[in-house]
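Data deposition worksheet. Section B asks for the primary sequence of the deposited chain exactly as it was used as input, without tags or linkers unless they were present during the calculation. Section C holds the resulting structure in token form. Section D is free text for depositor observations; keep each observation to a single sentence. Incomplete worksheets are returned to the depositor.
Section A, Depositor: J.P.
Section B:
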Amino acid sequence: MAAAGNQLVKANSLVGQDAPSSFTEICLEWEQLLQARPVSSLLRPLFFAQSGDQARLLLAGYPALSSAIFQAVGDRIDQALAALRISSLFDAVVAHTASEAPARKRRPEGLLFACGDVCLHRFFGRCVVVGWDETCQRAGAWDLGQGLREVRRFGRAQPFYTVLLERDQVARYCSQENLALLTEAKVFAHPQAAFYFASARGFVPSEALTFVYPDDRDLSAAPERRDYRTLREALDG
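Section C:
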């Protein structure tokens, strides 16, 4: 099942902000923590104590997990919620990986962009691609809720991409016709970038992202093989 296969990659965007380690490392440390003590011993001081000192002490020796929780933007409650998200996502990943390996997605014809590409969104400015679907995978009601049927020329039967917008802090889902590949793909800071990319100095897909999208890394690294037109320009020209 594709949704289950992509769970590990998608989970990265929900753990917390500015975490430097991969979600795999966070999961492994969470598992070690659970073997050593009940999760309530971590959550209780985060939710109810006057400071996070007790929780920080409990997380000594768990650098990836500690970073994902304590670098979350906001106060102690935000950190407690980050810990709850990690717990929930860990349970989901364990359930999925126990039954199947992540599904790999081969590039279809007509797909213009790849993970790691820096693009210009028609309405929202610069963004970087972190995933794609051959056609829109959101429920039909999503179109109406977003008011997009009035502005999309090619409908749902075109590639759709998950992107991180430079101007926003969450992942967005957008159609191919609204994106154009930038010739000067400058890296920009984003709180979720560390969950998808191997280096803070460039949008190089992580091992987890490359596993799901195995054809994308080589393509995004070869600008001479790219089509910089938008879908609208390609069909009109």
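Section D:
The two ends are 38 Å apart (CA to CA).
The longest helix spans residues 76-97.
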